[in-house]
Amino acid sequence: QLQLVESGGGLAQPGGSLRLSCAASESTLASFTITWFRQAPGKEREAVLCIRQGGRSTTFADSVAGRFTISRDNAKNTVEMQMTSLKDEDTGIYYCAGRATGCARSSLEYTAWGQGTQVTVSS
Hints:
By secondary structure, the chain is an all-beta fold. It contains no helices and 11 strands. Strands 2, 4, 5, 6, 9, 10 and 11 form a 7-stranded mixed β-sheet that branches.
């Protein structure tokens, strides 16, 4: 059973940066596709960025293109998402999710989830 834990959320000013990390406690993350989702208040959960086992990534949320990047650190057994040029609308709870096959946009395709980390962008 893949168990995921997110960290790195917090408060940032518009234009600022945050780095989120997704770690696995008892599994090798390199064996899984990992996707970052986010859920803003009153909105549905949306897929943001995905990284496959081999390292190829997919951007699901057009609003983060050119601002957010996803990467793996297999030595640390983590998947990280670097967020730059943050905007108010990036506020929400960020979750990482894993699956054994390729990237999927729908949250229903993922069986392993972390508990989420809050990101608040505000001046």
